[in-house]
Amino acid sequence: MSSNGKLIIDGREIDIQGEKNLLEIIRRAGINLPTFCYHSELSIYGACRLCLVETDKMGLVAACSTPPQEGMVIRTNTLRTRRLRKMVIELLLANHERECTTCSRSGRCKLQLLAHQLGVKEVRFGKRDKKVPLDLTSPSIVRDPNKCILCGDCVRMCKEVQGLGIWDFAHRGSKTVVTTAFDKELSDVACVNCGQCVSVCPTGALTVKSEIDKVWNAIHDPDKIVVAQIAPAVRVALGEEFGLNAGEDVTGKIVAGLKLIGVGRVFDTLFTADMTTIEEANELLVRLEKNENLPIFTSCCPAWVKYCEQFHADLLPNVSSCRSPQQMFGSVVKKYYAKKLNKRPEDVFVLSIMPCVAKKFEAQRPEFTTGGVPDVDAVLTTVEIAQMFKEASIDFTALPNKAFDNPLGVGSGAALIFGASGGVMESVVRYVSGLTGGDEVGRIDFLPVRGMEGIKKAYVKAGGKILKLAVVNGLANTEKLISMLKSGEASFDAIEVMSCPGGCVGGGGQPEVNDTVARTRRAGEIYEMDRVQQLHKPQDNYFVVKAFEEWFGGVNNHETHHALHTTYVPRRRINGKPFIMNDSQSQRLQVSVCLGTGCYLRGAYDVIKEFNDLAENRGIAGQIEINGTFCLEKCDNGVSVNVNDEIITGVSPENAGEIFINKISPLVDKNLR
Amino acid sequence: MERKFERLQEIIESHQGKVAHLIAILQEVQEEYRYLPEEVLTYIATAMKVSPATVYGVATFYAQFSLIPKGKYVIRVCDGTACHVRGSEPIHFALRENLGLTGGESTTGDMQFTVETVSCLGACGLAPVVVINGDEVHGQTTPESIVGAIKRIVSLEKQGESKSPSETGCCQNA
Ligand code: SF4
Ligand code: SF4
Ligand code: FES
């Protein structure tokens, strides 16, 4: 069907070049057909009907879901197609809250843009009559259901790329909504805050939770000094907000802009990215020596960390205990740099500028505080910081280039590449090779881990051993890799995980369009910048080496573990109530067996059966109440059972009988007495 | 000892956990529990390796599924065209009034009765039709006749001679 051939588009003959649908060919032919529900990286849904074209044989068709055929005659611009497109927009607007001027998507909303572009001058249909409340519970994302046009883009993104399926259609007909499971608040479901759904939402229905006002307040507070850090992926994307091409390096302009709006010190996250590599690589070397907790998983991506806490708590010991570069930065500023400034931690306001929406969640984790105040006070995305520049009326493209402040403003090329998928792994390889190979090791460009591919595998020789490495991006890919790991189909020594496609360059806080083309350009520039960087390996960063000596008296020791490492907690996927399995209201011994994902997979159901049978056999069924409950948050260690508010972990179908006899049954006797 | 979870697991297993069978599974599970509690839907999602939002989407798409507990007697008033023309509305109204249902309520406070409307039960010759618990069909009903039927159920319940509902398991407070 899509065999190469020719077809006619608006009177012009065009080659078919293996495209799977008409839309791609039409766009290649220079006609930018509007769409809401088409994304080249997602499956085809064909619901918005904006891409309608007229064909000679089939009449009106949706270009996105029609395969090209040799000889087809297509007209994109007819009275009918224009009228229909306008009507689609009108119908959508009729059911959409039209408070455009105050919408945070204003100016970049696709609905607004297309209404203008297609010449919609009035909306002939009724107005939306009821307003439903916004969901403000997530630290990263705001959901405004009043603005949803049901395109399903978020649904497919979260399902297909992240494998999570947080969003789906619910109800039917005119009552259809896109919502979470049981219409729960976003903070009550398994959303990992990656922001990919926000990236594809064409309207203001899903937006990033803004922290801009908080940052302005800190800047204007005379008692505070604002200390900023800039993540690698920001500097190759921010220009897009000001009309520059994806992948243009605007590092110097961002520094200049930040100084102009009143940020006290502008530092580089690369500094602590180098620290991360050094700590993590040493952690890996120790684990290899002891042969424990392998493979090591990277811990820089907070969306991945939350995912692991929710779905693979048994792997948490494998996750590197290193804090992410953002949190290492916050920690060293509040614990050490603040002293240099003669300031208390609360008077130094750490501002993070990230390509990432999940970093907002990470910054609010209770573990990351110093003297009771958060290590990172606010996280702004690339788009948000551009917004601040706009609010300050800064002519961004005309800004001169300024250099980072010292000492936390220096980073190696190995830190720079953290911004692209594979970068953390390559950085570790550079460090370890430098460590074992000594000075004669030149530049190490570790190409097999680079690129946009979802799962990459590589081997590297280190200290006479061959290490097996894997690099994944996207959580659906991660899940695939983990199941290969768990089934024994594959084994690795180290795995880098980034939740966003292509790594941080494709983060949920990056400018639109955030597609493979833009991501590839941004990553390309990062590697280009790395190529000309003198400091190649983390250990080439003299300032970092010195900081380790000065602050911690070395690497991977007690001191660094206090300031630069962290711990993880198993989390439930959904906040459910306990599930009552029998109808007793009496004062019987309460036994609840966890049926969360982890426990379910380890045979929770068989444990319940075993308990029930034993209770009956021993004639104590009347004194005991066995319930299923949804996740006791002790997922790392076999099935968890709650007996009179005490949690027994490590139960399995095999030892259930023993546990019942030794730990549960005696309590019944005690109860009876 | 009653073991509802065992049934749930059996149902899922009898369909080999196939996602294509989700609707059938939900149907059977609802027969078992009389409604689809949140925890049960979450369990099904976990067992079938689909997201809870997807299961919720399917469960809310079909009118036959209920996410809130229903009464012991579920009364369905057909509101298809034929029944509508022959006066299903006054019947529905009389039922609700008699049972004291107000506003958006569809189940009585004592969990005895649920009243809902359905579009066409396919028994148009008997219009207007009311079906109680899926098997007790009342044809050519009037407001008076249906209120009479309810009164009979209430008095049987009082004497403790009610026939048990066709679904096993029954509602939570039975
Ligand atoms: S932020 Fe990420 S995990 Fe959360 S709903 Fe959106 S795509 Fe899914
Ligand atoms: S929330 Fe946005 S992306 Fe999702 S269906 Fe609604 S408009 Fe589309
Ligand atoms: S893009 Fe073709 S129907 Fe939406």
Automatic annotation (TrEMBL), chain A:
What GO biological process terms does the UniProt entry carry, in alphabetical order? ATP synthesis coupled electron transport
Compartments reported by the entry = Membrane
Instruction: Give the 4Fe-4S His(Cys)3-ligated-type domain ranges.
Output: 80-119
What does the similarity note say? Belongs to the complex I 75 kDa subunit family.
Question: What cofactors are annotated for this protein?
Answer: [2Fe-2S] cluster; [4Fe-4S] cluster
Q: Which UniProt keywords apply?
A: 2Fe-2S, 4Fe-4S, Iron, Iron-sulfur, Membrane, Metal-binding, NAD, Oxidoreductase, Repeat, Translocase
Report the protein name in the record.
NADP-reducing hydrogenase subunit HndC
Q: Does the keyword Membrane apply?
A: yes
UniProtKB/TrEMBL annotation, chain B:
Q: Which cofactor does it need?
A: [2Fe-2S] cluster
Q: Does the keyword Transcription regulation apply?
A: no
Molecular function GO terms recorded: 2 iron, 2 sulfur cluster binding; hydrogen dehydrogenase (NADP+) activity; metal ion binding
Q: List the Gene3D superfamilies.
A: Glutaredoxin, NADH-quinone oxidoreductase subunit E
Q: Which residues form a coiled coil?
A: none
Q: Which Pfam families match?
A: 2Fe-2S_thioredx
In Swiss-Prot or TrEMBL terms, this protein is called NADP-reducing hydrogenase subunit HndA
Gene for this chain? hndA_4
